[in-house]
Amino acid sequence: MKEVFTIASKESEQCFDITDQVKSIVARSGVTDGFCHVMALHSTAAVVVNETHDPNIGRDVITALGRMVPTRAGWLHDEIDDNAHSHVKASLLGPSEVIAVEGGELVLGTWQGIWFFDFDGPRDRRVSVRVQ
Predict the structure, then answer these.
(1) Are 47 and 114 in contact, with CB atoms under 8 Å apart?
(2) Which domains does the chain show, CATH number per domain?
(3) DSSP secondary structure code for residue 78 in this structure
(4) Mean pLDDT by 10 residues, the chain (132 residues)
(5) d(CA 106, CA 47)
(6) Please, are residues 35 and 132 in contact by the beta-carbon 8 Å criterion?
């Protein structure tokens, strides 16, 4: 089963806890044992499994990446789109995660959830979730 949902970012860089949306899709899928693939359908966005109980984690990731990857650094791609830093940040985190499904539920640790990071907002973003 595959579903795609949309996230509307309101800031240039923003994070979203998408765990509940993904859990709902897994429940609708009827899959009891398998895998769930969650993927950002954009080259300037990322999907990560990490602690979501504290929303500051997502903001801290954005802050850390901002320190590592400055917005203006003579990026070659900026001559075309002026968003090279967004592509680099998304590449560092990666576009997707695969999470096991057991007993009809995602296999996540106590504090783990699923983050969606948008590094080139504001805009509408699509997330693909495939459960097999």
Answers:
(1) yes
(2) 2-69+79-131 (2.60.120.460)
(3) G
(4) 98 98 98 98 98 96 96 78 91 98 98 98 98 98
(5) 15
(6) yes
